[in-house]
Every structure is written in structure tokens, then in C-alpha cells.
Write a structure and sequence with these properties.
heterodimer, A: about 220 residues, alpha/beta, Rossmann fold, 5 strands, B: about 160 residues, five-stranded parallel β-sheet, two-stranded antiparallel sheet, 5 helices, about 30% helix, binds flavin mononucleotide
Chain lengths: ~220, ~160
């Protein structure tokens, strides 16, 4: 396997969904490789170390339609690729169900790879992943199998496996039928059960629609 | 008409009702703690933006001077955008055919973004612009995006309005 550095771009570090994505990818790759946590690092130092690797793989959650601010802090410090063939790849997971939510970020990463002269391994995207670290492993078995396949393909070819990327990226958009059904569940207050549950547990349900910055 | 300014170190001679300079006062990054949605609804657990939030939700207009870095919104501005989720509800509607959070406030200010940056290609600039439009759309915010050169002329005209 090419000398690879994996970055975890989640503010949750080891305790989030991004970490689970990385672990399952590495199970498939079957080779250890260093993982560094953007949330704990100095952005300039971290970006400076990219020169020591053939491949940089960024894993991160989608934050407001793009990368978390802490990941942009690292990108700001990145230098152009240090030698021919140095590669960069991205794996993004998000809360909303549709993978299409990450299209804007995906487009930006393609521009970034070009601007810095990296070979672009592409951007694999997964929607509907906000609950992965709260659910039992079993509930995500199909997802984990695809992530292992992504890791396995990476070890064998140095690229992202097309089938795995497309499986992760499904559903890309909601069909009209799906969005109508989901809207009905939302109106029946069933769609938002996870939030209701957390609000209740925190004794904050009564305040759920509060507007604290206009109230005194 | 209450107008606030969010800028990234630029010198500005016009008067605004409130100014947040992201270079002087970089917002702390969102920690992903979900307090603003599940513990203290609408309120961010970090206190560094409390004054900003109050000013923002009370404003009619917000002017953002964005200095793009590596073809994207700067980390400083991105950290601010990440922290805006406190202004929305966790609940998700699908009525537009895609997922979208519901607004928490009845109205939010109209936004004008003036941008400058070292874009290396028209495609890169287009990606930056479409990202901003996307985000403002999901923030239920009417938004106009103009090159920085237009700032002096446009905002002088705005200030002249009664
Ligand atoms: C500030 C913030 C912004 C987010 N923005 C989006 C978004 O625009 N679209 C989306 O689908 N999910 C969004 N999410 C949800 C996260 O992507 C999702 O919860 C993810 O699984 C978190 O991964 P982590 O546990 O590794 O941090 C956001 C979460 C936070 C905290």
C-alpha cells in the first residue's frame, strides 16, 4: 500500500461517526496506517507533514454543506503537491439522507486537488450517517461491508472502488414518493423522534422552539 | 433599517450598526456538541458569539465581506457559518423534495456578500459562489453576492437611503 496518512476531520475526534468510517475502511485495507485528528492538531504543522506521504485521505462529516471549519483551517495551510503522483482523496459522511447534499463540497475538493497539483482519488459520500455511532453495530452492517470494500480496493489498486463509492452514494436524491412519505412522517412528528427523545432526556422539550437571542 | 457588517480585516469607512471582524475575533469552531438543538434549544454552548447572535437576529440586513482562501470561504467564515445552526430547528422538512431544517426565527436578515479572492479559474469561482448560494438558500436567507469592487458604490447608496 502506498504510504498513506488518514485525517479525521470531525470535531468529535475519536468519538464520532467519522472515526467509525475510518476504522471500517482500515479493517478492509488490512494494513495499519497513521490516523491524525484535525481537532487536536496545529493546522500548519499537520499540513506541513503531508510532504512525507504519497497519499492523504481526508475523512470528515459534512458541516453546513461543506467541510467543518477546522478542516478548512488545515486546507488553508496546504502547499502544492511535493512530487509527481502525490494523491489526495476524500470520504464525507452526513446527517441528511441524500448523498447529493455533499455535491458542493465534492465540487470544491475536485478544484482543490487541481489547484494544488495532487492526483485526485475522488470523493466518496455517504448520507444518513448521523446515528451510526449511537446505533448497535448490527444496524450498520451493510454500510460497514461497503466501507471495508472501499478499504480493500484501496489497498489493491490505490484508488477508490467504483462500486463501493456508488453504493455509499445511494440514495443520491429522494424520489418524489420518498420525500412525500418523509414529509408526512415529519408532520405526524414521527420523523423527528430522535430529536424529541434527546430533548426529553435533557429536560429541554418545552423549550424546543425557543429563540434565546431575541428573548431576555 | 438595522444593518450589520461581518468582515475579514478589510478597512471600511461606512458606518454599520454592529461590526464583527473575524480576523480580530475569530469565532471558535463548532464542537458538534448538539447543545443548541438538544440541551439549551437555540443557544450555543460557547459564549464568544452571544453578542453577534443577538445582533444578527435583530438585523434587517447583514453585509459580509468574504476573503476567499484557496478558492473557498475562509476557515474563519466557515467556522461562523457552522455556528449558525443554532438559529435553526433540528426538525427536518422534505416539502421541497429534499431534506431541509426548519427555521427557528420568524425572519432573518437579508444578506449581501461582497467577495474577493485568489481564484485560479472561473470554475473555481463558480464553485465558491454556488456553495454560498446553497448555504443561504438552506438558511432561508435572501442573498445577493457581488464582487468586492461593488462594495463602496452599493453601500454608499444603501447608507444614503432614509
Ligand atoms: C454544525 C453542524 C453542521 C452540519 N451540517 C450538515 C449539513 O449541512 N448536511 C448534513 O447532511 N449534515 C450536517 N451535519 C450532520 C453531520 O454531518 C453528521 O451528524 C455526522 O455524522 C457527524 O459526524 P461526526 O460524528 O464524525 O462528527 C451537521 C452537523 C453539525 C454539528
Amino acid at each position: 500500500m502506498r504510504k498513506t496518512l488518514i485525517l479525521n476531520g470531525s470535531p468529535h475526534g475519536k468519538k464520532g461517526n467519522t472515526e467509525i468510517f475510518i476504522r471500517k475502511f482500515l479493517e478492509g485495507a488490512k494494513e495499519p496506517c497513521p490516523v491524525r485528528y484535525v481537532v487536536q492538531e496545529d493546522p500548519a504543522e499537520l499540513a506541513g507533514d503531508f510532504a512525507n506521504y504519497d497519499v492523504i485521505l481526508f475523512f470528515m462529516p459534512l458541516y453546513v454543506h461543506a467541510m467543518p471549519g477546522i478542516v478548512m483551517e488545515v486546507i488553508e495551510q496546504m502547499q502544492p503537491a511535493q512530487r509527481a503522483g502525490q494523491s489526495i482523496g476524500f470520504v464525507v459522511q452526513s446527517g441528511f439522507l441524500e448523498a447529493a447534499q455533499s455535491d458542493y463540497l465534492k465540487a470544491y475538493f475536485a478544484m482543490l486537488a487541481k489547484r494544488l497539483g495532487y492526483v485526485d482519488l475522488g470523493c466518496a459520500v455517504r448520507g444518513g450517517a448521523a446515528g451510526v455511532c449511537m446505533q448497535p453495530e448490527k444496524a450498520s452492517e451493510a454500510l460497514f461491508a461497503v466501507l471495508r470494500k472501499l478499504g480493500e480496493g484501496y489497498r489493491e489498486t490505490g484508488a477508490f472502488d467504483g462500486e463501493a463509492v456508488s453504493a455509499l452514494g445511494t440514495p443520491y436524491r429522494l424520489t418524489q414518493k420518498e420525500s412525500r412519505l418523509l414529509e408526512r412522517l415529519h408532520r405526524l412528528k414521527i420523523g423527528d423522534l430522535m430529536w424529541t427523545f434527546m430533548l426529553l432526556r435533557n429536560k429541554a422539550f418545552r423549550l424546543r422552539r425557543a429563540r434565546p437571542y431575541t428573548e431576555e | 433599517m438595522k444593518t450589520i457588517l461581518i468582515k475579514e480585516g478589510q478597512e471600511v469607512s461606512q458606518n454599520f450598526d454592529y461590526v464583527l471582524d473575524l480576523v480580530e475575533n475569530p469565532p471558535r469552531p463548532c464542537t458538534g456538541c448538539w447543545s443548541c438543538w438538544t440541551r439549551t434549544p437555540g443557544r450555543c454552548a460557547q459564549k464568544d458569539l452571544d453578542v453577534f447572535y443577538r445582533q444578527y437576529v435583530a438585523a434587517d440586513r447583514a453585509v459580509i465581506l468574504s476573503r476567499a482562501v484557496k478558492g473557498f470561504v475562509s476557515a474563519r467564515l466557515k467556522n461562523l457559518l457552522d455556528r449558525m445552526i443554532a438559529l435553526f430547528l433540528p426538525y427536518i422538512t422534505y416539502r421541497t423534495g429534499e431534506s431541509m431544517h426548519l427555521p427557528r426565527y420568524e425572519r432573518l436578515p437579508k444578506v449581501t456578500v461582497y467577495y474577493e479572492g485568489d481564484f485560479v479559474s472561473p470554475e473555481e469561482e463558480e464553485v465558491y459562489l454556488s456553495y454560498l448560494k446553497r448555504t443561504m438558500y438552506q438558511f432561508y436567507t435572501q442573498c445577493e453576492i457581488l464582487p468586492m469592487e461593488r462594495f463602496a458604490e452599493k453601500e454608499a447608496a444603501q447608507c444614503a437611503k432614509p
